[in-house]
Design a protein that fits this description.
Helix content is about 35%, strand content about 20%. It is of the alpha/beta class. The strands form two sheets. It has an eight-stranded mixed β-sheet with strand order 3-4-6-5-7-10-8-9, sandwiched between helices. A hairpin with an 8-residue loop joins strand 3 and strand 4. Helix 2 packs antiparallel against helix 9 and helix 7 crosses helix 9. It starts with a helix and ends in a 5-residue tail after the last helix. Bound molecules: zinc ion. The site of zinc ion has 6 residues, from helix 5. Zinc ion binds next to helix 5.
Length: about 325
Amino acid sequence: MRRTALMVALFVAAFIYVPGTSAIAEITYNADVARMIDNVTQAELEPVVNDLSGETQAIIGGSPYTIQTRSSFSGEPIDMAEQYVFERLDSYGLGSVAYQNYPGGGAIDPGSNVIGQINGTTKASEIVVIGAHLDTRPWGSDIAPGADDNASGVSAVLYLARSFADKTFERTIRFVLFGSEENAPWTTRKFGSGYYAFQAKQAGENIVAMISADALAYNVSSETLRIVEMHTRRPKRDKGGGDAAIVTMWQDAIATYSITGLQPEPHAMSNRLSDHGSFWRWGYDAVLLIEEIGSKGNPNWHEITDMVSTFNWPYYEQVTKSLVGLAAHQAGITP
Ligand SMILES: [Zn+2]
């Protein structure tokens, strides 16, 4: 009986579906987007991943520094990692780059989210947030390279920032590298994306879409089409269908730009376990972009073995391309 009732509810819901504000029915091929997608290569993505995961010495404040961990409890190393991404964003010629300092609370240290912004043209009050968490979590170790989780997401977001910097968009885009994701920010107002989303709500900001890029580079599948997941709220919680509209646009982008080798897989389970969960809490439409998880997930997560040597580079490139297409069209790139 319960199952039947659910099916009737879903059947009815299909007829009263109203697209959210972030919904755009379809996307039109754009040559600039195609070029940015073509230009996603290992050579573009690897230097930042190597620097953040301690494979190479990063240059921070003009001096070499090896980032051995980005734990939010590490003090200097996470501070240096924040400065590293700030300096990167600042070199791209964006509209603005800023630290957002959060207070922390309880056992959680204060820290900073790092934000780069491109101001929108005709719909500047509508904000698209492209986010990735910068911090790592080591299990029983002071070394936490976090190459896949989540230097891979950070490097992809930085690629978007530098390739979008000289383009124009109707909406305002914010590239946000969040702190303290590994401490469940979706339960708090005091740190990381929990602080960010609460502050945005308090300020009345109209965030029309948030995409959390969290772990993009690991896949061992031997299939021709490799699964990449996008997580949304369950339909009854995704009121207005805003999360689902982001998924549709992502699938459209993959088709429009012929991004091959991927099987884009929606998961409408209200899994809030990344920074997108903080945005759901305050009523914003948001999704999680993530490699295939579950039984084929990355066994190196939160271990000292989460290193760049485990990456599937062609897969990571294709997943990043899908993010480029989605973000550019979500923000209303101008032809
Ligand atoms: Zn993560």
